[in-house]
Design goal:
Length: 530
Amino acid sequence: MHVHFRAPRERGGSVPTVVIYDRLSRLFAEEAPDHRIAACKAYAAQRGWEVVHVATDANVSGASALEDRPGMREVLAWLPRADYVLAAKLDRFARSVLEFQRLLRAAQSTRTTIVTADGVVSPENASIIVNVLAAFAEYERDMIKARITASKEHFRQRGNHLGGIAPYGYSVAGPVNDKRWVVDETAAAVLREAADRLTNHGGSLTALARELNERGVLPPAEHARQRDGRKLRGQVWHSTTLRDVLYTPAVRGWLVQATPGTRRSALTNQPVLDATGNPVSVGPAILDAETWSAVRAVIDGKAVGRGVQREGKALLLHVARCAECEGPMYRQRREVRGVDYSTYVCRNGIGKRGTHRPNVVTARYLEEMVTADFLERFGAFALMRWQEPDGSAVLQLSEVAGQLDNLAGNLANLPAGGRAAQRVTAQITALEARLEELEAEAAHAVGRWVDAGGTVADAWRQRDTDGQRSLLGDLGALVVVRPTTPGAPKRFDRERIDVTFEGPAWVRDRDPQEVRLEEIELEEFLADQG
């Protein structure tokens, strides 16, 4: 993470603050939101409000849940810091009474007012008119719902793009009623390279994601924003992001839909089939059938928790590399009378077709060496995880506050000291603690590193081999093994091994001098403990 955000302005100053929101329905995908945002900015300037954030949703239905809209999640995350949320018209917020009521409750919990730039909902009449207008918005939605359902089925069978952002590797082209996917060569090249590295060169999703970040390659959402001329948010590739864009049937150019009974996901989506049972094609394939099948097989083989537990797991797979060819070292398992004689071997140094001298090292000693070095360097570090704000804390905040109000009312009607009163009191105490957690979470409008609980050493002890290998990858571990010198004794030689770590991402992004001071403090602490 190399993008630094300006700290959000705290509410409570002399100038009221406002967040502008605009939503563009998929029914009017050719319409630009610029004039509505400009109207909102003019309205804010007339009122003397400071615009602290502008959030937009393109090709998003007004009936969709608040948390399913990226722009609305930004609005929810900013609610605790804004006095007002402003849209051009009421229907830009939502066309569902239920979702609009959820937005109102969330705004009420943060003492934020919902207003519109057309003057229909103003700070003076907001509390009275919004519910009435929301009912009309839902009525309008019901009128077009049947027409949308019928037209979507028609366009689906024709192989047309049905709205929203095209899958990574594609962009959308064509007239309104005949949109198709065309290959976005910049993104498609990333997919083809990743597929080749995974299937032909022993690459791993974690290493590839890290390399893409180092090269400055934008992840799917950021790539779409840059292509559309929108503001970037500083997101990066993760191994799961790369997995999803390679695994989805969309890379074959097929229209996809959620498998019945499951949530929409790249791992569970299935192709839409036509009347003859063949996948509906929306655009040209990025990966051919053979490559895509090979990629899915590799991903399935490396999956954790999505199938049968695998035996023979290697801690340093794709972490240990050969100094001669920079290729991966593979663990060859061998056990004799209960004693482990397994080795890490470079395949390019085996047999008559080997391209360099043999490179073999005892697995047990190598893994013990790397583990000891890793824990010595990072074991005492607090384990962190990157958390993106999604507005869910603000939604939960309003729900928990409502539950507290209800319980407090019930407690007043119960006999003091009785069992029922004690149970309600315990529930109130738990909800108050949860309320404090949510208020702390809602205080952040930008992504940040948060404490995952415990230290790196704690996580290492609790994880299985797959989890430990993932932890090594997350902290940038690289183990380079050199072949033995001809005539040297056949024993484990530490001089053949170079172990390097990029270090935790939450440390890499900080001031080097600050990190060095913490390292000195840690070294002094460890020396005192020794």
